[in-house]
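Example record

The entry below shows one chain as it appears in the dataset: sequence first, then structure tokens.
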Amino acid sequence: MEILSPVNHISEVAPLREAGADELYCGLMRREVLREFTNVFSLNSRHVSEANLPGFGELRALAAEAHGAGMRVFVTYNAIYPQQQFSALTDEVARTLDCGVDGLIVADVALMLHLAERHPGTRVIVSTLGGAFNSRSCRMYQDLGASRVTLPRPLTVGEIRDVGAACPDMEFEVFIMSERCFFPNALCNFEHATYRVRGGLLPAAAEFARRVLGHRMSALTGTYNNRFINELQDRFIARNGMMCCREYDAELLDADGAAVEAGLTFRFVDVWNNFREACGLCALFDIAVVPNVRSVKVVGRQSLTSKKCAEVGMIRRALKLLEDNPSRAEFEKSAKEIRKETYPLYCGKPFCYYNEL
């Protein structure tokens, strides 16, 4: 089973390989595209610059570095594109493929058809935004040329097993670490935020952190496990950024749709403040025996390098445990010990990716 890790800079390739990653995925956010469409309508669904590579030169260098380390690189084109974007999209896709990447992560059926016609042989991975919730949708994507499907987060381990058994000649990829959104990505109109269109303090600070600190500053190493800093991020970055994390007026309805209580305040982060630290290590015991689940995915292209490496390392250690054929109880005990070494504050049922187990 492969470990698929996010990456946003060439400097991350070597440490991620050392941590145990086999595959990398990244996105592009070029200035030409930003000028034409803004980041809200960028060509991939991670709309912030610090989550992406800035151009083809960086992508080509990263792909070469990764291949030298024996790793594969996939690039995300996982939005749904209006007609006005398609010419810019197809031009960028062609240039991306010329950079020597190993495949594309795609959600748009029209783009899949384009790839089959103009770039036959391109390895296509269906994004979670493709909404492949069942075996029929997976077979449809296979007919369109996809070789792997990223199964949506809401699927249980049992459903993953069933879909895998129903599509034995299709590869699958499942989420295993970080950013467990409670809503299906394919059905979400807030997908990865509609913000940072205009200039201002927040985007300027983010760009400074990306360029100057570059995810390499050792002083930041432990911040992903600091509840105080996480709270600040949730309150001041998410609240003023991601639309789904903003504060909304809400009302409680009964089964007939009548209002029981009005004037309520609702925020995603307040109610489910565990999406960033989500973990599926214990579920590897069951996922690993599904023969065509070929890859487990870490989320968070914009995360600190140290966070990515820590999470990849936890998964590699957990997969190593399975080689000794432990019992379920033995594996879960050891997996939780691995988790708590890195995330002592964030282990338990509220943080489980697959908490039906």
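Notes for this example: The radius of gyration is 20 Å. The chain is about 40% helix and 15% strand.
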